Amino acid sequence: MRVTPALKALLCLLAAALLLGSETWPKEEPPAPLVGFSYSPGIVSSADNEGAAELANLLAATEPDLVRLPVYWELVQPTPNSLDFSSVDELLEIVDAHNTFADRPTRVVLTLGARNFLYPELHQPAWADPREQPHLNDVQAGSPYRTYFDESVLRYRSSPLLYAWQVENEPLDNIVNEVTGADQITLTQLSWEVAEVHELDPAHKVGVTTFDGWNVYIDLLQIYAPLVLAGLGAYPSGHPEQALAMGDALGLDLYIDQPSTPYRFTSPDLRSVWKQQAVGLWADRARAQGKDLWLTEVQAQPWSGRAGFEPANLVASAVDYRQEPVQVVLLWGVETWLRDPAWMAAANHAMTILRT
């Protein structure tokens, strides 16, 4: 019998089903993760004074364990020969002020690199244009960029607020938009950045983020039969195996209702169960390597205002993810929370579930 690619895929799926079926559900819930959200002033407004008030309000309303903040290259290095850390310092001052009176102190994950969270993903200063490879790699290898990178680590490595670093954002993934060209970070550059943070700040962990497939079977195919996955033309699965190998923590970005999500005729709650199974897979693989698993972007708002993802779906996904051994969970959606009390209540409910 000829073994066709489709048959190979079927055999892999059957093997994966057997592996999953052999697992036993944990008798006890794993330890609670640290819980929080991502924030950038550009998420809601571009005015610095409004951003300060927004962050202060979010901290007071949710009392997070962690907040992820950006160290944007374009803001910190406005010219090749100048550095301005005021955009980061102002945010850290707000967190510090919150901690003065908070029952639950908040720490920060600082994200640095050319790619950072929030559209348009590549936050490159104008002097470093054009915004695409291979020029981007040449600029990142130059002394101005490396000064931005090193001085960022040196400035904040001793901060009592610092929990960990994130290097780049989804650096290996192809995130297409109309502003930038191909801007994936090369493996060589990413390796240098992770090693550089370890060299300058051995006291803090480094996370590398990516997305994964729409269910655990796609992730298993990517690990064990990538050629079959490519032959099937399946929905891309990000680069979780490579990201896990690069850092001290794998950060997964989990969105269960967006325009490109396959099988949208299923419910968001079912799709969060699928994601939970994948989280369990990557938690096991991270633990086997002595590393952490972070959920760095958990969908906590509708995608671009589209219907289909409701506050109850956020709460249901928190119930699912709480059952897996992860160390950090960061929700994504603060602009919606600030506008809509129902979403703020759901975010707080989800955070309570995750902490319990």
How many structural domains?
A: 1
Q: Going by CATH, what is the homologous superfamily?
A: Glycosidases
Shape: globular
Helical content stands at 40-55%
Strand order of the largest sheet: 1-2-3-4-5-6-7-8
What is the third-level CATH name, the topology?
Answer: TIM Barrel
Question: How many angstroms does the end-to-end distance come to?
Answer: 53 Å
Low-confidence stretches: 14-24
What is the mean predicted local confidence, pLDDT? 90
Describe the structure.
With 356 residues, this protein is an alpha/beta fold. The protein has one domain (5-13, 33-355): Alpha-Beta Barrel (TIM Barrel), CATH 3.20.20. The protein is 47% helix and 14% strand. It contains 15 helices and 8 strands. Strands 1-2-3-4-5-6-7-8 form an 8-stranded parallel β-barrel, surrounded by 6 helices. Helix 8 (187-200) links the parallel strand 4 and strand 5 (205-211). The longest helix is centred in the last third of the chain and has 21 residues, at 268-288. The termini are far apart. 45% of the residues are buried. Residues 14-24 have low confidence and may be disordered.
